[in-house]
Amino acid sequence: MTRSVTLHGRIIFRANIELLTGLHIGGAAGGLEIGGLDKPVIRNPRTNQPYIPGSSLKGKLRSLLEKVYGAPQTFRVNDGVFVHVPTNEEEYQRYRPIAGVFGTLPSYKELTISVPTRLAMRDVPLTEESEKELRQLRTDLPYTEVKWEAAIDRVTSAAAPRQIERVPAGAVFGPAEAVYSVYVGNGEQVSEVVALFGTLLEAFTYLEEDYLGGMGSRGNGHIRLCDVNIMARRLKAGSISAPQNVAQATSLRELDREKVVKRLQGIFAE
Q: Are 104 and 117 in contact (CB under 8 A)?
């Protein structure tokens, strides 16, 4: 069977990420020194500024959705790649909103839609204002603080102190940019592909209630999305439309997800 994929346009989500508690997203340590950091943060090698990798954001969003939807965690090896394989149609439909956004939908009998990954997440730098503020503060390290923790041996009760590097609470990263490509494959309708964008907004809501980065169960990584902006651009062979404003809000919780999806469906139906 011949399969084709058509790109109808893109939906662009932008927001700033405000840290309500310190954020730790780990980077590679250059070498362990006596009294040195056990867990440094990831930094831009050119500017030495911490940033949020797009891979960390995308992976966390998908993981949260899989837990909420009860997506199966069973895998098989297919040509050396771990691919989820639905075992029945009910399971297929439950997993579909997640895989339809974050990766190619797996196959189940005749229910097979092969499309490119629709979601691209950009790396997120510090805002210019936060960069200036952190540079002027007397932080333990450039742009970051050091948090001391103690790992307790549950058998001997011995404490082993360690140092965790964090971006301090109050810092703002942004804009975070998620680009959702409206790829439509065989057997799909444009309206249903556009509706899947609502799954991404749902995932961001779960993120605010959870945490980003490492050691969130110990207080790190509580974030809030602010200055939200959603735009859409229709694409046709030989022509590119001007981007259309879809929604703006000072916080994520102000957005009405259903209204956003309906507005987007109207744009791509025009």
A: yes
- Res. 190 pLDDT band, cuts 50 70 90: very high
Q: Write the CB contacts of 131 (distance below 8 Å, at least 6 apart in sequence).
A: 49, 143
pLDDT of residue 112: 55
pTM of the model: 0.84
Q: Distance of CA 1 to CAs 4, 83, 110, 112, 186, Å?
A: 10, 22, 12, 11, 10
Structure tokens of 210? 């959870």
pLDDT at 75: 46
Distances in whole angstroms, Cα of residue 21 to Cα of each of 17, 69, 90, 167, 248: 12, 27, 39, 9, 25
Count other C-beta atoms under 10 Å from residue 171's C-beta: 23
Interhelix angle for 197-209 vs 54-69, to 10°?
A: 90
- More confident position, 37 or 118: 118
Is pLDDT above 70 for 235? Answer: yes
Beta carbons of 84 and 75 less than 8 angstroms apart: yes
The Cα–Cα gap between 128 and 110 comes to 51
- Note whether 179 and 119 are within 8 A (CB): yes
